[in-house]
Write a structure and sequence with these properties.
This protein has twelve helices and no strands. The protein has 320 residues and is mainly α.
């Protein structure tokens, strides 16, 4: 009877949670800035996803006779110093940012950060000490300089490993697709992105594990994995969503900064960081401003949309 009562209580919690998510979505839809931000993000990332199908030119196609040309009928956003279509490169750069951001969120934030945070908060003891001490060591390192060193030191080895795979396995086109660059950038960002998430989740789980419903489930013999999935995870889901919304812009910006320094995604794979670097010269901007304005405006819209969306989601959760 007690077990059945716990099961019914868990089902009621699930239905109540669904109702809360619907209420949060209703609040979010009332905020026009949130909808505008979602539309901007959807347009930019949608263009990146569909770039191989709808981009007017390949991102490597060059025409030196039409280098640094302003917007025309053939090139709506102009061309860069190598005669490559700016619109096509901007679309493929959006795809690069989307791939790196999604990979870092799934690994560094969602899986590693939340997983280690819930493990440390629920188990405590030496497990908590080990996880937090590792986090303290990593967080004490300077972020951007360490990312630059990691990418600069491991990039050649990643390219060599990809070429070995191409020569000894059926896999092909790994180097041309930019896979080594993607791997190094997202691995470096994931190394530093999980620490803050783990600390917040750990602090909340510390509070939750002393609640009556957690102690009741444990007293009835529920295994730890079931307690975490059925009782703890639904109660920290709102914090996970807030972490995701606030981390999207930071991860995208980090990828762009690394590429601007020349240690991020490597050519020929396009990136907003490389496009910004190509157009950042004073003489280039004075004579051909579109080379800098095109990536600059898109990056500004994308990062600002992330900020507005994060604020809107935070306001929606404030009345939870």
């Amino acid at each position: 009877m007690a077990t059945a009562s716990i099961e019914r209580s868990a089902e009621r919690d699930v239905h109540a949670g669904r109702g809360q998510w619907r209420e949060l979505w209703t609040r979010l839809r009332r905020k026009r800035l949130a909808l505008v931000s979602l539309a901007i993000i959807a347009v930019i990332y949608g263009a990146g996803l569909s770039a191989p199908l709808v981009a007017p030119y390949a991102y490597t196609e060059q025409n030196l006779d039409r280098a640094l040309e302003g917007p025309t009928r053939d090139h709506w956003l102009g061309t860069d110093r190598l005669g490559r279509d700016m619109l096509s490169r901007a679309m493929y750069s959006a795809r690069t940012t989307l791939i790196v951001t999604a990979a870092v969120l799934l690994t560094g934030s969602i899986l590693i950060g939340n997983g280690l945070g819930m493990l440390a908060g629920y188990r405590g003891g030496w497990i908590d000490n080990a996880i937090m001490r590792v986090g303290e060591v990593v967080s004490s390192l300077p972020g951007i300089p360490m990312l630059i060193l990691i990418n600069a030191g491991l990039a050649p080895r990643a390219i060599e490993a990809a070429r070995w795979l191409e020569g000894h396995t059926p896999l092909s086109g790994l180097v041309a697709s930019g896979f080594p660059s993607y791997l190094i950038v997202f691995a470096g960002l994931s190394l530093f992105s999980w620490i803050g998430t783990a600390r917040l989740i750990r602090a909340l789980v510390f509070q939750l594990r002393e609640r009556d419903f957690i102690m009741a489930a444990e007293g009835l013999g529920a295994p730890g994995g079931r307690v975490v999935v059925r009782h703890i995870l639904p109660n920290v889901a709102f914090l996970i969503v807030l972490q995701i919304s606030s981390g999207l812009g930071a991860i995208a910006g980090s990828e762009i900064v690394l590429t601007w320094f020349g240690v991020g995604v490597q050519p020929p794979v396009p990136s907003f960081g490389a496009m910004l670097f190509d157009g950042s010269g004073a003489r280039t901007f004075q004579s051909h401003p579109h080379v800098l304005l095109v990536p600059g405006v898109i990056v500004t819209l994308l990062l600002y949309a992330f900020v507005l969306l994060g604020d809107a989601i935070n306001d929606a959760f404030a009345h939870r």
